[in-house]
Amino acid sequence: MSIKRLIPSLFLIAGIALSAPSQAVVLLSDGFDADSQSTVLNFNNLINWTVSDGTIDYIRSGDYGISCVGGSGGCLDMDGSTSDAGRITSRATFSLLPGVTYFVDATISGNQRGGSSDEISFGFLDANTSNLIGGATFSGIPNSSPFAPLSLSFSSSNAHTARLFFEGAGQDNVGVILDNVLFRDSTTGDLPEPGALALLGLGLAGLATSRRRKH
Ligand SMILES: [Ca+2]
Ligand SMILES: [Ca+2]
Ligand SMILES: [Ca+2]
């Protein structure tokens, strides 16, 4: 795994309901392939997201030497071109219910352009206050890091009205490449695909605790 460190912050892990099996519900899925037909620096017209706190670039695979996932379509450079990495926040709001586990998956690579190591944070913001509800930060992502899964699981004992966000950090205009965001819930405690398991540490610890309590 090329991503060295996972720094969990402010996770609110609580009891997880284990109920009859059912399919996870996909709440948001975005491969950034339909936002624009060409690369646009400092793009602010994403279909599913608003941009704030800096800029991001919309990249069509191949431009600036950047490959998106699968070598085609679009993806985002989370450090835009104004020397201030940006944040994308979902236009949609989501009702996060107590006792339901939510999974956020995405695919990221290093900046692919020889810049210094990069950092990305992601998770949930309160839809009204924009305060952080829960999330995680990956830092020290080498520029040569190939595409790898980024995942977190979230569960809270309180209800939240939230927006999903991803935020770069940096001022050198070459940032983490983000693609294939998938946000889903599960009321079954279903585990995500094996490739994502390594990065799920804290969420899985919460799940194990809940299962023990279930005796
Ligand atoms: Ca894509
Ligand atoms: Ca850039
Ligand atoms: Ca950077």
Q: Describe it for me?
A:
The strands form 2 sheets. Strands 1, 3, 6, 7, 9, 10 and 12 form a 7-stranded antiparallel beta sheet that branches. Strands 2, 4, 5, 8, 11 and 13 form a 6-stranded antiparallel beta sheet that branches. The chain is built from 2 helices and 13 strands; from the N terminus they run βββββββββββββαα. By secondary structure, the chain is mainly β. Mean pLDDT is 84; it is low at 1-21 and 189-211. The chain has a domain at 7-26 and 89-214: Jelly Rolls (Sandwich). Helix content is 8%, strand content 39%. The chain binds calcium ion (CA) (3 copies). Residues 57, 77, 79-81, 173-174 line the site of one calcium ion.
Any chance you could write out the topology, listing elements then pairs?
Blueprint: E1 7-9, E2 25-30, E3 49-52, E4 57-60, E5 74-77, E6 87-90, E7 94-96, E8 101-109, E9 118-126, E10 132-141, E11 148-154, E12 160-169, E13 177-186, H1 194-197, H2 201-214
Antiparallel strand pairs: 1-10, 2-13, 3-6, 4-5, 5-13, 6-12, 7-12, 8-11, 8-13, 9-10, 9-12
The protein binds calcium ion (3 copies).
Please identify the top-level CATH class of the domain at 7-26 and 89-214: Mainly Beta
Parts with pLDDT < 50 across at least 5 consecutive residues: 1-21, 189-211
SS content category? mainly beta
C-alpha Rg, in Å?
Answer: 17 Å
Q: Report the mean per-residue pLDDT as an integer.
A: 84
Q: Based on the structure, what is the oligomeric state of the protein chains?
A: single chain
The sequence of SSEs as H and E is EEEEEEEEEEEEEHH
* Count of strand segments: 13
The backbone outline, from C-alpha atoms, is globular
CATH architecture of the domain at 7-26 and 89-214: Sandwich
Figure out the total of helices.
Answer: 2
Estimate the helix proportion, in percent: under 10%
Name the beta content range.
35-45%
Largest sheet: 7 strands, antiparallel
Bound molecules: calcium ion
Q: Could you name the CATH topology of the domain at 7-26 and 89-214?
A: Jelly Rolls
- Report how far apart the termini are: 34 Å
